[in-house]
Amino acid sequence: MRIDGKHYRTIWVAEDGWTVMILDQTRLPHEIEIAELRSLGDAAEAIEEMKVRGAPLIGATAAYGMCLGLREDVTDEGIERAYARLIRTRPTAINLRWALDRMRSRLLNQPYERRIELAYAEAAAICDEDVAICKAIGDHGLPLIRAAAARKKPGEPVNILTHCNAGWLATIDWGTATAPIYRAQEEGIPVHVWVDETRPRNQGAAITAFELLHQEVPHTVIADNVGGHLMQHGMVDLCIVGTDRTTRCGDVANKIGTYLKALAAKDNGVPFYVALPSTTIDWTMCDGLAEIPIEERGEAEVTHMRGRTADGRIETICITPKGSPAGNWGFDVTPARLVTALVTERGVCPASEAGLAGLFPERAG
């Protein structure tokens, strides 16, 4: 995807062949800053501090973190030490564990002298596969937007509501929830996106709006509590969100507030779709509410906000009374019964164990 007309991926290897480069997403939308990851610690901190975020990108960054860890210690003990450091960075996104398990399996029992080369090749493969997966999600999600467009008056846009950021900045390229939108744009289908601000970190207002702006997709940033009102008045044709972990039975964990949007959509007869790569499916879990670990983050994300002042300075300010405590749950679980369908790289299916098993029979059971 593009920033100021230039194509970027969210993560890549520098010309030296080993330094890992990322777009520091904590600086968006006011500053575009490319950060270097030169050690295992750098990679772990980038995930923890949300310089990178979104389940697929977290997994890819962890994979490259293993590469950087091997540069420090190429032994089996070094692999296990890197795995242990990275696995504890974020608890909810399943891609983290998936990528680390894949890297560890690829590297153990390999000759020491080949491990670094193999690690970088495997991390690159994870990234390339994610791009292909997200493009396929876009291809399978496009007919849903095309069908909505057919019900509109000529030239009238399809109004899509999304929550948080499941765009290219959460993946390597294309995104998950945004991939069908970008495919619709390519086909000339008029679309308009309602962008939830997504408190407390404002990933919608800061990141989704940023990428839609640079992709020239019409959009409007709205407060988190506006979605239900828009649905009541027929101003939303469909919702598309992403997910950080999906159970084999179709429950989805996504950014806090997703559940409330799904409830409003159900009440107003608005289709609610979840776009996901199969790497976010946790086949070991069925009951998302009982089993998915929900990350609790620091209260400063709720009590403080970062923005640009009138004179151009980037400042962080406190918005709550001094001494008032804050709670900060990062995700909630939307039960499968509220999800119209899941959009994957292999097609669209019901949010159910049977639906997912039909698309991924080799993983089911």
Question: Can you walk me through this structure?
Answer:
Keywords: Amino-acid biosynthesis, Isomerase, Methionine biosynthesis. InterPro entries: IF-2B-related, IF-M1Pi, IF_2B-like_C, Initiation_fac_2B_a/b/d, M1Pi_N, NagB/RpiA_transferase-like. GO terms for molecular function: S-methyl-5-thioribose-1-phosphate isomerase activity. This is Methylthioribose-1-phosphate isomerase. Pathway: Amino-acid biosynthesis; L-methionine biosynthesis via salvage pathway; L-methionine from S-methyl-5-thio-alpha-D-ribose 1-phosphate: step 1/6. This protein is α/β, with parallel strands linked by helices. It has 2 domains: 127 residues, Four Helix Bundle (Hemerythrin (Met), subunit A), CATH 1.20.120.420; 222 residues, Rossmann fold (3-Layer(aba) Sandwich). 39% of the residues lie in helices and 19% in strands. The chain is built from 12 helices and 18 strands. A 7-stranded mixed sheet has the order 8-7-6-9-12-17-18, sandwiched between helices. Strand 1 and strand 2 form a beta hairpin. The chain is globular. It starts with a strand and ends in a 6-residue tail after the last helix. 46% of the residues are buried.
